Amino acid sequence: MIVPLYSYRMTQQIRYISYCIVLFCIATFQSCKLIDDDLSACGQEAQVTYQVKLITTLDVELNTVLSTDSDAIHHATFNKYFENIFVDYVHDVDLSFYKTTTQERAYHDNHIIDASEKSFTLFLKADSYKHLAACNIVDAKTVSLEEDSHPETMQLPQMKGDTLGPHTTGLFTARLDMDVLADSSQNFVVPLYMANSGVGVLIDTAGSWVKDIKIYVQDMATNFFVQDSLYIFDANPLIKAEQLPFVMPIQAKHRSEISIPARYADRLCYGTACYPSNDTTLLSDKNIPYKWRIRIYALTWEDKITETILYIDEQLLAGHLEIIQAKLRRNGQADAITAGVGASVQLEWKAGGEIDIEF
């Protein structure tokens, strides 16, 4: 199934960083001489400005869901993890310029930036181009840039597998139609938008007889085509949510007592990054509506596994963070605290079939 990249809410926080590529669209003297007196292929100076637009609900979600003093440690913990995904800088850029008429790639370049602003000098002939860009690919362990020799096939697929680790970087892409003229100076602005998302699970284990927990998200896209901003849903792997080490809030770091109070340690934080979900509502075998799911597997001290599936019927959008809260019972069953989240439970769950969880 293929779905488009969806628009963002007007209330979201917007942060900007930018770097500039100075693109001189003038062919070399040698190539111009080959055209004799026809200088139409020799462009004039053009400046291309790339802007990374981080449109995200990171701060809004954390400040709304975790707003009390007792939430400070968990707020800091989630913020530490997701600030490495919802980044406000560019590490690496991959730039491709394709001729509109032939779809062949006329120019390709990539750079390590590690800065909020950078300038390059490139050379292109005057022509019409489809320009595509992808950022933060170098350290993306589960996502790669592939099939980029033509614009319609340029994509960012996840690696294959039934169970995958989280995305390790915030992925940004851009697309722009450019008419590079031979007889005038031009300015182009190329916005880069985030292509992936984040999910956090805050689970209260107080009173439960549980010695281990595994958490996964499901029903997310597996691939992204850059030119048309299209998400692909051709498989349905489990994306692992990692248990996050506690982080003390800044206001508490000056104190001599830096250990985590016991009353907070029972509330565990799990986080993952992934592609967005679909916008289509599905029904579970128990007629629970959902657009994506969270699977929680709790291993009790009796060595029995309890499976809880949480059903979320709100689409997870690119650039969004969703924090879902739940409470574990003594038998490992998870009850959703977050409003509007459905649940189904299977006690003494056995591994097998499409789902195989190892503790």
Element layout with pairings:
Elements: E1 2-4, E2 13-24, H1 29-33, E3 45-56, H2 58-65, H3 72-82, E4 90-99, E5 105-115, E6 121-123, E7 127-135, E8 163-164, E9 172-180, E10 186-194, E11 197-204, E12 210-218, E13 223-225, E14 230-232, E15 238-243, H4 262-265, E16 267-274, E17 282-283, E18 289-290, E19 292-300, E20 305-312, E21 321-328, E22 334-336, E23 341-346
Parallel strand pairs: 2-6, 3-10, 8-15, 11-21
Antiparallel strand pairs: 1-14, 2-3, 4-5, 4-7, 7-9, 9-10, 11-16, 12-15, 12-19, 13-14, 15-16, 17-18, 19-20, 20-23, 21-22
Helix pairs in contact: 2-3
What this model shows, in words?
By secondary structure, the protein is mainly beta. It has two domains: 15-55 and 88-194, Immunoglobulin-like (Sandwich), CATH 2.60.40; 59-85 and 196-346, Sandwich (Immunoglobulin-like), CATH 2.60.40. It has four helices and 23 strands. The chain has helices spanning 29-33, 58-65, 72-82, 262-265, and strands at 2-4, 13-24, 45-56, 90-99, 105-115, 121-123, 127-135, 163-164, 172-180, 186-194, 197-204, 210-218, 223-225, 230-232, 238-243, 267-274, 282-283, 289-290, 292-300, 305-312, 321-328, 334-336, 341-346. The strands form four sheets. Strands 8, 11, 12, 15, 16, 19, 20, 21, 22 and 23 form a ten-stranded mixed sheet that branches. β4 (90-99) and β5 (105-115) form a beta hairpin. α2 runs antiparallel to α3 (72-82). The longest helix is centred in the N-terminal third of the chain and has 11 residues, at 72-82. It is elongated, with a radius of gyration of 24 Å. The two termini are 33 Å apart.
